[in-house]
Amino acid sequence: MSKVVVISITGEDGLWVADLDAGTVIPLDPPASSKLKEVADLRKSGTSIVKGVNFAVVVKSEKEAASGHYEG
After folding, report:
1. How far apart are CA 12 and CA 43, in angstroms?
2. Contact 5, 17 (CB under 8 A)
3. What does the alpha-carbon distance between residue 30 and residue 13 come to, in Å, rounded to a whole number?
4. pLDDT, tens digit (0-9, with 9 covering 90-100), for 11-26
5. What CA–CA distances, in Å, run from 6 to 21, 30, 46, 66, 71?
6. Cα separation of 49 and 39, whole Å?
7. Which of 32, 39, 44, 67 has a Cα-to-Cα distance from 13 of 20 to 30 A?
8. What's the pTM value of the predicted model, to 2 decimals?
């Protein structure tokens, strides 16, 4: 099973790659002619794309997530 996630948050311009095994998150600039770029551009119009993710929530801080506050 893959343990790498490409993410973006509403209101942010960029994409990020989270490598769960390495514990890292780095910016991602998809190649201009790639399918990932096409899909990433859809989010600019408000489209949400989810594939292979069964839980995701945006919170204001790590502390809020750890305390169970998921109201974002």
Report:
1. 10
2. yes
3. 13
4. 888 899 999 999 999 9
5. 14, 10, 17, 22, 22
6. 8
7. 67
8. 0.78
